[in-house]
Amino acid sequence: MAEDLRDKLGAQHLPLRDQVLAALRTAIIDGDYLPGERLTEDRLAEDFGVSRNPVREALRVAEAEGFVVILPRRGAVVASPSSGTIADMFAVRERLESLAARLAAERATPADVAALRALLDQGREATQRQDLARVAELNSTLHLRILQISGNPWLSSIAKSLYLHVQWVFRLGAAERAPHSWAEHIQLVDAIESGDGDRAEQAALIHLAAASAAAFENAEGGYVAAH
Amino acid sequence: MAEDLRDKLGAQHLPLRDQVLAALRTAIIDGDYLPGERLTEDRLAEDFGVSRNPVREALRVAEAEGFVVILPRRGAVVASPSSGTIADMFAVRERLESLAARLAAERATPADVAALRALLDQGREATQRQDLARVAELNSTLHLRILQISGNPWLSSIAKSLYLHVQWVFRLGAAERAPHSWAEHIQLVDAIESGDGDRAEQAALIHLAAASAAAFENAEGGYVAAH
DNA sequence: AAATTGTTCTTCGTATACACTCGGTCGGGA
DNA sequence: TCCCGACCGAGTGTATACGAAGAACAATTT
Question: What's this model's pTM, rounded to 2 decimal places?
Answer without folding.
Answer: 0.83
